[in-house]
Design goal:
Strand 5, helix 7 and strand 6 form a beta-alpha-beta unit. The chain is an alpha/beta fold. It has 9 helices and 7 strands. Helix 1 crosses helix 2 and helix 5 packs across helix 8. The strands form 2 sheets. It has a 5-stranded mixed sheet. Strands 1-2 form a two-stranded antiparallel sheet. It has 2 domains: 49 residues, Helicase, Ruva Protein, domain 3, CATH 1.10.8.420; 134 residues, Dna Topoisomerase Vi A Subunit, Chain: A, domain 2 (3-Layer(aba) Sandwich), CATH 3.40.1360. 25% of the residues are buried. It starts with 13 loop residues before the first helix and ends with a helix.
Length: 213
């Protein structure tokens, strides 16, 4: 008898079943992978597993968002925004902390960031009011910002967000740049290698140039 490819798992323990269900609710983790992880954890020292679990409890209870760039932070202001050596007049606009970390790993950018917390996507019901757009506009209006760099993924959502931000910022007497298109159309920036992403930032172009292509 042929076993169905997606047969329901039968657990001998409700504790194991519950742990598997919790892990498999995470992105990219299926039931089989979750079961393998649970069985691995069962073999570990209880102290190690307690530390593992407590790290997530501590994360949820104590994590903050930077009051300036809206990145995830341990404190009210993140280390980058607190660093007096960073160029506060240059702001790199990113979708989330994953892209921010990718840009930081290139060591090519010495300014600060603005984390939008998402991209405009009408198909998903995400509009400008659902991400940190107004906060960026206010930041430019209130501080001595000289350049805004768009470092958003070259997807339809990323391009839509770029264009919307450009329309909101173009009359504020600042330079508006976009990373060079060394990143292929449709690419997610967090997966770009450091050299390619670093070159794209260093070779950034006026955003207006991309509109004529």
């Amino acid at each position: 008898m042929k076993i169905p490819k997606f047969a329901t798992m039968n657990f001998s323990s409700k504790l194991v079943e519950n742990a598997v269900n919790q892990l498999s609710s995470l992105p990219g983790i299926g039931k089989k992978s979750a079961l393998r992880l649970v069985l691995h954890m069962i073999k570990q020292e209880k102290q190690n597993i307690n530390q593992f679990g407590n790290s997530f409890i501590d994360l949820i209870n104590n994590i903050n968002y930077c009051s300036e760039c809206f990145s995830i932070s341990d404190n009210q202001k993140c280390e980058i925004c607190s660093d007096q050596k960073r160029d506060k007049s240059t702001i790199c606009v990113v979708e989330d902390i994953r892209v921010m970390m990718a840009v930081e790993s290139t060591m090519q950018f010495k300014g600060v960031y603005h984390v939008l917390g998402g991209l405009i996507s009408p198909m998903d019901g995400i509009g400008p009011s659902d991400i940190k757009v107004e906060e960026l506009i206010q930041k430019v209006q209130k501080s001595e910002v000289k350049e805004i760099i768009f470092a958003l993924s070259t997807t339809m959502e990323g391009d839509t967000t770029n264009f919307y931000l450009f329309r909101r910022l173009k009359d504020l007497n600042i330079t508006i740049s976009s990373i060079a298109r060394g990143i292929s159309i449709g690419d997610e920036l967090e997966y770009a290698d450091e050299i390619t992403l670093g070159t794209a930032i260093s070779s950034r172009l006026p955003y207006e140039n991309s509109l004529s292509k």
